[in-house]
C-alpha cells in the first residue's frame, strides 16, 4: 500500500475512535499529572554492567542450535554513569496479546528516553499488534498522542492483536517498513508467547545481519511470565487488586444476604496465580489451586466432594452462604482431562480441516472414533457442554480457549447434585443456591496502580536503553521490586535464558517456560495454613478499590504473593 493511502486510512481511524478528543473523567485528569517514580539506576546518565553468560532453563542443546546468534548472552544491569551517552535511533513498538494495565506507560517510558537521548529520535507504533508490522500499518507517536495516555489503562493508544510472528515472509515484510522508516529496533510488549516470537524475530534479523534489534517486555495479568529474573509481569498487580475489590464486594453482599454461594471464575489461563493472590487478599471460603489438583492427581469428583463438604459443614453451623474462587484453567489440570486435552490438541492440529466442516453430532462421533480408549471414556463422562467446549477451535498458539469453558457452572451443578444425594441420605439439611461470576476483562484494562505505573515506566526506559546499548534478543527487566522504588534494579535478560522445548500444535517448539504456582513456595504455604479456617468460618476481607493517593503503605504496596516470595 502506498504511504499516502496508509496515512489517510490512519487519519480516518483516529477520527473515528476520537483518539485526540477523548472525553476525560476527573480521575483521568488528575492521574495524568502523576509522575512515575524511578530507580536510581535509571536516573541521569546510565551505563551497562554485564554479568555472566547465560543458558536456557531447559533443552540447552536444542535451544542453542535454534538460536545461535542470541544464545548465551550475559545478564545486564543499568548503573549510573558519569557521562551522558546520546544516541540517534528510531524505534518501533508493538502491543501483543491480551491487554494488561500499564502498557501505555511502557510506551511513555520508551518515548521519553529516546527523546532524552536525542530529540530527533522518533517512535512508531504498529497498529493492532504484530499484524501492523507485517501489513505496514503504523502511526508516529508524538508528544501530543503520548501525553493523552500517561498513567492510563488499556492498549487503545495503538491497539493489540494476536498475530504470530513465525514465518520468513512475515519477517521480510516487516523489514520493508522498518527500512522505510529507518527504524533501529522493534520493542514487543507481550506475554510468554509474544516474547518467544520476539526472540525468533531477533534471531532471524541477527542471522541475516540486517542490523535490526528486537527487545521484549514482560506483560500479562496471568502472572505466569516470571522466573529468577522477572519477579512479576506488569498488569498482575492492578488486575488482582481490581478483582480483589470485586470479590470483596461480593463477600460483603454474601455476608449481608446470607443465602447464596458465589462461584467466581478468575482469568489467568493455565496458571492459578490470580486465584491465589485474590484468596490471600480476600480470604474466601474455598479457593481451588489447579497446580495442587494436578500434583495430587485429583479427579473432578474429588474437587466436587471438597466443595460440597465445605458447604455442608457451613450449613451445619447455620451458614448457607459462601464464596468459591476457581482458576480459569482448572479443567486442564485435572490429570484425566489434561491427557484428553493433549490428545485432542494433536488430533485437531492434524485433522482439524476435515473435522471443522462436520455438524455437531458428527464431530462428536469423529472425536470418539479417533481417541484412545482411555481418553474416549473420559470424553464420554463429561457433561455435553464441557465436552463440546474442549473440542472447539484452539487459539493461535494451539491452546484450549479455557475462558469459554463454564467451569464455575459445571462445579456448582455437580455440587448441587451431590448435596441432593446427601440430603436424601440425611447427610445434608441446609439450603444451596448458586450464583456465578467471571472476572477477567474487568481487570485487563483497569487504570494502573501506582506500582504498575512506576514499574511499566521503568520497563519502557530499560527497553530504550537496551536498544541504545546495541542489545537484541533481550527482555527488559526491573528487579528488587518489594524495596522502595529508588532501590529497584533495571536491566535486561536474554530471552533464550527463559526458553525450553514444548509440544505446540502437534510439534516440539521453543517457548518461554510458563511459571505455575509453586506448591513449596511461601504464598501457597500461607494459603494452606489458613484455608481450613476460612472454609469453616466467615473470615472475609474487603480490600476496597485501588488507592492512588494516601499513605504509602496503602497506595504503593505490592501484591501479597510478591512480598511472600521475596521474604
* Domain tally: 3
For the largest beta sheet, what order do the strands appear in spatially? Answer: 1-2-13-12-7-6-3-4-5
How many helices in DSSP terms?
Answer: 23
From the N-terminal CA to the C-terminal CA, the straight-line distance is: 55 Å
CATH architecture of the largest domain: 3-Layer(aba) Sandwich
Low-confidence stretches: 1-8, 10-20
Structure in a nutshell:
By secondary structure, the protein is an alpha/beta fold.
Account of the 3D structure:
The protein has 567 residues and is α/β, with parallel strands linked by helices. The chain folds into 3 domains: 183 residues, Rossmann fold (3-Layer(aba) Sandwich); 181 residues, Phosphofructokinase domain (Rossmann fold), CATH 3.40.50; 70 residues, Phosphofructokinase, domain 3 (Arc Repressor Mutant, subunit A, Orthogonal Bundle), CATH 1.10.10. The strands form 3 sheets. Strands 1-2-13-12-7-6-3-4-5 form a 9-stranded mixed sheet, sandwiched between helices. It has a 4-stranded parallel sheet with strand order 9-10-8-11, sandwiched between helices. A two-stranded antiparallel sheet has the order 14-15. Strand 6, helix 8 and strand 7 form a beta-alpha-beta unit. Helix 9 crosses helix 10, helix 12 packs across helix 18 and helix 14 packs across helix 15. The chain is globular and about 80 Å long. The N terminus is likely disordered.
Amino acid at each position: 500500500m502506498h504511504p499516502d493511502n496508509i496515512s489517510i486510512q490512519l487519519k480516518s481511524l483516529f477520527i473515528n475512535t476520537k483518539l485526540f478528543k477523548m472525553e476525560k473523567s476527573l480521575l483521568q485528569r488528575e492521574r495524568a499529572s502523576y509522575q512515575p517514580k524511578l530507580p536510581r539506576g535509571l536516573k541521569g546518565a546510565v551505563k551497562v554492567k554485564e554479568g555472566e553468560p547465560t543458558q536456557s532453563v531447559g533443552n540447552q542443546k536444542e535451544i542453542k542450535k535454534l538460536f545461535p546468534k542470541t544464545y548465551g548472552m550475559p545478564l545486564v544491569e543499568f548503573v549510573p554513569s558519569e557521562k551522558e551517552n546520546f544516541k540517534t535511533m528510531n524505534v518501533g513498538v508493538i502491543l501483543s496479546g491480551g491487554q494488561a494495565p500499564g502498557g501505555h506507560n511502557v510506551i511513555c517510558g520508551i518515548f521519553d528516553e529516546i527523546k532524552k537521548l536525542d530529540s530527533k529520535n522518533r517512535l512508531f507504533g504498529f497498529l493492532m499488534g504484530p499484524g501492523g508490522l507485517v501489513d505496514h500499518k503504523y502511526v508516529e507517536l508524538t508528544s501530543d498522542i503520548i501525553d493523552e495516555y500517561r498513567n492510563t489503562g488499556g492498549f487503545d493508544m495503538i491497539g493489540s492483536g494476536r498475530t504470530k510472528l513465525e514465518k520468513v515472509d512475515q519477517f521480510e515484510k516487516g523489514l520493508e517498513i522498518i527500512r522505510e522508516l529507518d527504524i533501529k529496533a522493534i520493542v514487543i510488549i507481550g506475554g510468554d508467547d509474544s516474547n518467544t516470537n520476539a526472540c525468533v524475530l531477533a534471531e532471524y534479523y541477527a542471522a541475516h545481519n540486517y542490523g535490526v534489534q528486537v527487545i521484549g517486555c514482560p506483560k500479562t495479568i496471568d502472572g505466569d511470565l516470571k522466573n529468577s529474573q522477572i519477579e512479576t509481569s506488569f498488569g498482575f498487580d492492578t488486575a488482582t487488586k481490581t478483582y480483589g475489590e470485586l470479590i470483596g464486594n461480593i463477600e460483603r453482599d454474601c455476608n449481608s444476604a446470607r443465602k447464596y454461594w458465589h462461584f467466581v471464575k478468575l482469568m489467568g489461563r493455565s496458571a492459578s496465580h490470580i486465584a491465589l493472590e485474590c484468596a490471600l487478599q480476600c480470604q474466601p471460603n474455598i479457593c481451588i489451586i489447579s497446580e495442587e489438583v494436578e500434583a495430587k492427581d485429583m479427579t473432578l469428583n474429588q474437587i466436587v466432594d471438597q466443595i460440597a463438604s465445605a458447604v455442608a459443614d457451613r450449613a451445619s453451623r447455620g451458614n448457607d452462604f459462601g464464596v468459591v474462587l476457581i482458576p480459569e484453567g482448572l479443567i486442564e489440570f485435572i490429570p484425566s482431562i489434561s491427557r484428553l486435552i493433549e490428545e485432542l490438541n494433536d488430533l485437531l492440529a492434524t485433522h482439524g480441516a476435515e473435522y471443522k466442516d462436520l455438524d455437531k453430532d458428527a464431530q462428536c462421533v469423529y472425536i470418539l472414533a479417533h481417541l484412545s480408549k482411555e481418553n474416549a471414556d473420559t470424553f464420554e463422562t463429561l457433561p455435553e457442554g464441557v465436552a463440546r467446549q474442549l473440542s472447539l477451535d484452539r487459539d493461535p498458539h494451539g491452546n484450549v480457549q479455557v475462558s469459554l469453558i463454564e467451569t464455575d457452572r459445571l462445579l456448582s451443578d455437580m455440587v448441587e447434585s451431590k448435596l441432593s444425594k446427601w440430603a436424601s441420605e440425611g447427610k445434608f439439611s441446609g439450603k444451596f443456591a448458586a450464583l456465578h461470576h467471571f472476572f477477567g476483562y474487568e481487570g485487563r484494562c483497569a487504570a494502573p496502580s501506582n506500582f504498575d505505573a512506576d514499574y511499566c515506566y521503568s520497563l519502557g526506559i530499560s527497553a530504550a536503553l537496551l536498544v541504545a546499548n546495541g542489545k537484541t534478543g533481550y527482555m527488559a527487566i526491573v528487579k528488587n521490586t518489594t524495596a522502595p522504588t529508588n532501590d529497584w534494579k533495571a536491566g535486561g535478560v536474554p530471552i533464550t535464558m527463559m526458553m525450553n522445548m514444548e509440544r505446540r500444535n502437534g510439534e516440539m517448539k521453543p517457548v518461554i517456560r510458563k511459571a505455575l504456582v509453586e506448591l513449596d513456595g511461601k504464598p501457597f504455604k500461607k494459603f494452606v495454613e489458613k484455608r481450613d479456617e476460612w472454609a469453616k468460618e466467615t473470615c472475609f476481607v474487603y480490600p476496597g478499590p485501588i488507592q492512588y493517593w494516601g499513605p504509602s503503605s496503602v497506595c504503593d504496596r505490592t501484591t501479597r504473593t510478591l512480598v511472600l516470595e521475596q521474604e
